[in-house]
Amino acid sequence: MTTDIVAGEWRFRARTAGPDDGRPVLLLHGFPQTSRAWIPVMEILATAGHRTVAFDQRGYSPGARPDDPAAYTPGELVSDVLAVADALGWEHFDLVGHDFGGSIAWMVAGHHPDRVRTLSVASTPHPAAFRASYRKSTGSDDQHQRSGYLRTFREAPRGETEAALLADDAALLRGVYGGLAAEVVEGYVADLSEPGALVAAVDW
Fold this sequence. Notes:
Blueprint (H helix, E strand, L loop, with lengths): L1 E6 L2 E8 L5 E6 L10 H9 L2 E6 L18 H15 L4 E6 L1 H12 L4 E7 L4 H9 L6 H5 L1 H8 L4 H17 L5 H11 L4 H7 L1
Parallel strand pairs: 3-4, 3-5, 5-6
Antiparallel strand pairs: 1-2, 2-4
Helix pairs in contact: 2-3
């Protein structure tokens, strides 16, 4: 089921599944994804009796899309997670994150261990481990090369990366989703083609 969650000054688009009284699980998507990424997982968790919520994070939700890169600091993104949990009435919850959402999940658990019952992170190392690996990297180091897109995002003029991803019927963006079902790809492209969505997602 899709719904909106009002948390602080923002309105987050979300997907929910499972019984209302089930053990609460909050899921954080990566880039360039939305809560759509968690649909298959949510179905499994719901069948197991868990109450699952995946929300489109700041920048991805139309009602939470500030037009200022400074509004996407790690502290703000962590606060969003806690605000959503508060809006749901969840004092404690299991937290799951993937990719950039995994980085946020690490920070939520690290700074607010009293709120997170368990933490599961896919494809994202602990931020301290990543930072240490990146800092000792050289130009020929694999991690340095793999992280090149992060430097591109930071250095490119705002809007340039997004325009390139959406050019030619979003050809580059579609290429990111190689191997996914066509309807899933079309869903992501539709989500991120909303006015300002991809610019905000890159800010995030």
